[in-house]
Amino acid sequence: MPNIATVLKSEIVRLARKELRSETEGLKKTISAQRSDLAAIKRRVQDLERAIKVVARAATASKSSAKPGASEEEGGQFRFRAAGMRANRKRLGLSAADFGLLVGATGQSVYAWEAGKAKPRGKNLAAIAALRGIGKREVAKKLAELKTTG
């Protein structure tokens, strides 16, 4: 036969758990609602950050398109793309050594520029830009002049 103290103790534990369960149930619902609110706020912040990036890109694009070419002539800055230089060299039918001779560099430097391992400096950039708008005949004349004088 069970001891009265044991029965009393087990009944007290059962009632205490029942009371705690009813008290914590409301807290669990509140915590769940707060977690879903927090997740919604995080999603909203991410959306706003994306929107800010888009606006910033559009602002920088509009600034750069407002004065096309103005910074190139004024500051001596030229846009450089390795693939564009390679395409121009092939269009002109030049070897890397000949292209380097025209722009004041070595053939190895031209290969490094085309591979993206290095970038040309100011005077070389200006020479590369000057070669963009001329044809094969003019390049052949310049190359012949450089080979005879050098």
List the helices and strands and how they pair.
Elements: H1 4-66, H2 70-75, H3 82-92, H4 96-103, H5 107-115, H6 122-132, H7 136-149
Helix pairs in contact: 4-5
Which properties best describe this structure?
81% helix, rod-shaped, 0% strand, 150 residues, 434 Repressor (Amino-terminal Domain)
The coarse silhouette is: rod-shaped
CATH topology of the largest domain: 434 Repressor (Amino-terminal Domain)
Distance between the termini: 118 Å
What's the architecture of the largest domain in CATH terms? Orthogonal Bundle
- Would you list the SSEs in sequence order as H and E? HHHHHHH
Q: Which runs of at least 5 residues are low in confidence (pLDDT < 50)?
A: 69-75
Q: For the residues shown, what is the average pLDDT?
A: 85
Annotation, overall tally of beta strands: 0
Largest β sheet strand count, sense and barrel closure: none
What is the level 1 CATH name of the largest domain?
Mainly Alpha
Q: What is the CATH homologous superfamily assignment of the largest domain?
A: lambda repressor-like DNA-binding domains
Sheet-strand content, in percent, reads under 5%
| Alpha-beta classification | mainly alpha
Q: What is the gyration radius calculated from CA atoms?
A: 37 Å
Number of distinct helices: 7
- Percent in helix: over 70%
Q: How many domains comprise the coordinates? A: 2
